[in-house]
Amino acid sequence: MARTPLDLDELVEHWTLLKDEQGLVSGKRGATRLGFAVLLKFYTQHGRFPRGRAELPGETVEFVARQVQVPASELGFYEWTGRTVEYHRAQIRGHLGFRECSVADAEKLTAYLAEHVAHKERRPEQVRVELLARCRVESIEPPTPRRCDRIVATALRAAEEALTVRISSRLTAESVERITALVAGGAAQDDEAGPDGGIDGEDGPPVLGKIKEAPGNVSLETMLTEIDKLLAVRAVALPPDLFIDVAPKVVAGWRARAAVESPSHLRTHPVPLRVTLLAALLYEREREITDTLVELLISTVHRIGARAEKKVTEQLVNAFKKVSGKENILFKLAEASLGAPEGTVRQVVFPAVSGGEATLRELVHEFKTRGPVYRRTVQTTLKASYTNHYRRGLIKLLDVLEFRSSNHAHRPVIEALALVARYASAGNTTYYPLGETVPVHKAMGGDWAEVVHRTDQRGRRRVVRMVYEVVAFQALRDQLKCKEIWVVGADKWRNPDEDLPQDFEARRAENYRELRKPLDASVFIDELREQMTAELTLLNDQLPKLSWLDIAERKSGSIRLTAAEAQPEPRNLRRIKGEVQRRWGIVPLVDMLKEAGLRTGCLDAVTSVSGGGSLSAEVLAERLLLVIYAYGTNTGIKAVASGGHGHTEDELRYVRRRYLSAEAARAIAVQIANATFTARSTELWGQGSTAVASDSTHVRAYDQNLFTEWHSRYGGRGVLIYWHVEKKSLAIHSQLINCTASEVAAMIEGAMRHGTTMDVEANYTDSHGQSEIGFGITRLLNFDLLPRIKRINKVKLYRPVAGEPDAYPGLAPALTRPIRWELIAQQYDQMIKYATAIRTRTASTEAILRRFTRNASHPTYAAMLEVGRAQKTVFVARYLRLRDLQREVEEGLNVMESSNGANSVIAYGKGGEIASNRRDEQEMFVLCLRILQSALVYVNTLMLQDVLGEPEWVDLLTPADRRGLTPLFWSHVRPYGEVNLDMDSRLELAAAQVPGPRAPADADERPATEKR
Prior knowledge:
Elements (H helix, E strand, L loop, with lengths): L7 H8 L3 H7 L4 H17 L11 H11 L14 H14 L6 H14 L7 H14 L7 H25 L3 H9 L24 H7 L7 H15 L13 H13 L2 H5 L3 H47 L8 H14 L5 H8 L4 H14 L1 H29 L2 E2 L6 H12 L26 H4 E3 L5 E3 L1 H17 L4 E2 L20 H7 L6 H22 L6 E3 L7 E3 L11 H12 L2 E2 H12 L16 H16 L4 H5 L7 H10 L3 H18 L2 H4 L5 E10 L8 E3 L4 E11 L4 E7 L5 H11 L8 E4 L6 H10 L2 E4 L9 E3 L15 E4 L2 H20 L4 H9 L5 H23 L1 H24 L12 H30 L2 H4 L4 H6 L8 E2 L38
Parallel strand pairs: 7-16, 8-12, 12-13, 14-15
Antiparallel strand pairs: 1-4, 2-3, 5-6, 8-10, 9-10, 10-11
């Protein structure tokens, strides 16, 4: 890819000859003088010599040529090979104190990388960055690219050997024997060889195959199966601190490698490597299975209650008849009774009601079926469902999961579970023994109080064992969901204290600086309070002039906002799209994907998960494109394999397993997005945007798994895809979430973790983003939340200062209480701590919100709500005052609607349903769909720039056309039909080379730890 032209400041900073450098140049003439000067400045910037004239930007040659007073064209006569250039290179090395890389230097560099880099960073491209940085530190001229590759490969291999020996030595002989037994087997178990010399796709021995399996749907059978898996993993007896000093991403890489390699492949590895790979797989799977069991427990307890209520409701629905007009009946009864207090009920009361005695009987029956009797019937049914079916699995869970709590208030629930486990095998005993201490917790009160306790035949008040077990599991479910109770050995459901950065105190100043927050809470509060005051003052003062806004006391809500008038319609966009189709015809979607892949080089960095592989780069690129197309269109690999490209279904499935991981797909999407940003013409598209729109899309999916859920609004089972799309229709992030997940958390995750070069400063959302906790967290994380406000007529504005009831008289009907600044001051440090956890990824936003939203009394949560209320007041006041902001939010959300329309066209296969129960397959569909849409936007951007680069077309654009111009259109695209992939045919675009994302001047030398 071509680079971004350098501006004058960069030329002056990096390409100006200094006094000592001018002395070196002074004795030379003509082409030799210019060539030497260019080599010198290039070396001072990059720590190496250019590999040829093509690496020297034209503007830099012109800039240096003016300084040495030699025409830039003279550089064409400079000899790039021979004794002269070698002498110049030696002279430059001597001046700068650099030397060529010797054999001893290479060995020293390899040892350094193996010891300090490769043990925690396994990606070759990142280790190469560290190598170049080390060369700069040691004043060594970087070796040739091939020699760099050899040094990196040697360092990675040496580091892996050292790590695997160290890890395997921590295992007992018995554990090593059990691990190796997982892949033990002879030729009878090995199928025919796969593409890289081993077998691929075999299920493996029963135990290993069972451990690898994904869980099924919520059921007793799934629970028992997952318990067996967990016991099988624990039988290996891995030490809990086995990987304590190994980087998590290294362990994850080992696990991924063990998951895709067949047993025959694993058997070929040296014993330390084989044992380490399988140990990493078992270690990660133990945590995943533990998480799965917790989710099964939560879902099962919920299902018991939900099904009991449904069953009782169905039984009572035929007898149920809702009686309307209860208030009128009560009035008529009172009036009749007071009018004839001496009369009988049959003579006075019955005739006063329409329908007489029958209506009153229906009213009594309704109360009984909807009141306490109904609740007791539900509880009885729930107990029966638990006892007769689910109890076996839930009791067994208590034997394999260890529950703990850091809050003494929830100790009774832990003690209750211990009591349940202790009497789990007590047979048909109805009550707990009289001498037994039964822990009392909150869940035993309320509707359950009368059911948990019962008077026995001797008149003694006893605790019913089965009912107590039901109540204990319901209490456990509630406390697990807010992480007041956590599980030992889990990841998602681990100790919430581990979610917070452990070094926060030691790095306090740095953490505050990264969040751009003052160390003093009063400074933060003053700034927020001043913003509130300023916005409320502006709204109050300008209110009489705002024709679209009225604030007054009314039952329907104090705020009345008139919708903005429609913007002028673009008139010429259809003609421009027609010209695109006329020039390039109907373009197959796979050709747009291919064009994006070839132009951006996004497939070049994809390597095998197992670190090996014998596929050539050309063959791998073709198969990757076909697999991405198969997943993104939802047609599947089998359908795509039948096209005209010469690759079989088995070959494509092999590439999917071995090469196209979720991380690789995500990196491909990010690279296409970055290339699109760089390729854009600022004259046509304007300056880069810093705002994104986000929303979720419901997609139907197979439901024999834990992830797929019923969505009441969409009326079916499925999953949600949460998208982040910037204002010019480019998707910068996508994530798969379940239907009950927090969309606020998904919004924050995407804005913080998109991975592109875009700097997100604002996020448009639909009404789900108007939550006060969302406003609070985004304020702490330094980006603006711009939601569509639902029921804005009911919104209340908070006061910035107490004791000023007459302030903002025009806003009085919409004002409510003052912000509790003292609470924010008290919890300021804790709020920064949680925000740092989100920023540094020690915890997901979902984990933080899960802990808070179900525990509203948490003081930090209450403080975040106050920050959110203040920030929401600032936004709403500005939103009501500014018509442009109202239009901006609507336009941003319209981009999301357009993006959803494109996705429905691209992912046309299988009726739009995700036909898999595996979560990794569902995630791959989402990522490949994003890649396809990004490729479409990228190529359309280049096409539009080609068309609108001509004066006769660009002059047609009106302001309305420029506002509505988008590269997300598909009238000229064919996503259907046979897939024919020809890597030699290319789209004829004027921008054959497009600018790539420009790295900093020392990007090749900067350590990976210093990059964002």
